[in-house]
Amino acid sequence: MKKRIGVSLLLGVMALLSCLGSGRATDRGDLGSVIKTIPPNGPFWKYGTVIMHRRTTKAGMAPVVFAHWSHRARYTCRVCHLDLGFSMHSGDTGITRAQYTEGKYCGACHDGVMAFGVQDGECDRCHMKDTQALEAYFETFAATLPMAGFGNGIDWAKAYRSGRIAPKNTISSSAPSLQLPEKLRLPMKLGTAVPRSDVAFSHEDHFSELDCSSCHPDVFNIKMKGTVDFSMDKNIFGNYCGACHMQVAFPMNDCKRCHPKMSGFSGF
Fold it and tell me: Which position has the higher pLDDT, 13 or 150?
């Protein structure tokens, strides 16, 4: 995995420029800011890994290092972002120790029974002074899953479809089973300024991991044609699709995953 980092970064930047088109980010400072948001900008294990330090710094503790990749193999996104109430936007939730010990947020699972918790005296498994153990675990973890050329180097959709992972859709056995409306099962074609780069969007693929309320109305306006300022630039800076596809899901420089008819770069 490590050998691909340098190549991925170079090709990723090239793909980004291809996606943006000429003349869209001519200011060097603006372009630099955009490139910094495009992974992989470091080791694959870092993509989808969140460092939470806002409260821990004040408490004199090491930051919490949360790896999305280790959790999403076990649970779908909706478990944390719907059932447990975590915001889809980074930094919005603000977990406290009191909430944790009351069984909220992380404490719903990390209670010493379902998963390790403070009761086991294993605080350093989340409050990490260094990430060496996590990095080593990622190498072992990723080796069993199908590879991709972007993000953390794992093709999660392929892993899901092939049965390599079978994430649970709820932590409660009594939770109702949600069904996708039949009219949303057909793929949507979203037009762009250049017809050959039209977007192929599948509600069904997203619904396998998310819930309608994950995207609507906070990320996308629920009204037909209600999103008037949707653009590649907005996505790259973490809006709309970029709320997930610049943070955890495959990043925006994997152009042909959404623009299947786009010519040119298609990964490796």
Answer: 150
Is beta strand 188-190 parallel, antiparallel or unpaired with respect to 49-52?
unpaired
Under the phi-then-psi rule, with left for phi > 0, alpha for psi from -120 to 50, and beta for the rest, what region is 49? beta
If residue 200 lies in a helix (H) or strand (E), which one and from where to where? Answer: strand 199-201
**Residue 47 to residues 22, 61, 231, 245, Cα–Cα distance (Å):** 28, 23, 23, 11
d(C-alpha 91, C-alpha 35), whole Å: 22
Closest CA to 265 of 30, 10, 11: 11
DSSP code for 137: H
d(CA 137, CA 45) in angstroms, rounded, equals: 9
Q: How far apart are CA 87 and CA 92, in angstroms?
A: 6
Residue 118: both structure tokens together:
């403070």
Q: Classify residue 79 by its DSSP letter.
A: I
Backbone angles phi, psi at 64, to 5 degrees: -80, 130
pTM of the shown model: 0.76
DSSP 123: G
Angle between helices 28-37 and 5-20 (to 10 degrees): 130
Q: 116: which residues sit within 8 A by CB, 6+ positions away?
A: 110, 122, 125
Q: Which helix (H) or strand (E) holds 188?
A: strand 188-190
Q: Are 240 and 250 in contact (CB under 8 A)?
A: no
- Report the Cα–Cα distance between both ends of the chain, in Å, rounded: 13
How confident is the model over 214-264, as pLDDT tens digits? Answer: 888 888 888 777 777 888 888 887 888 988 888 889 888 888 888 888 765
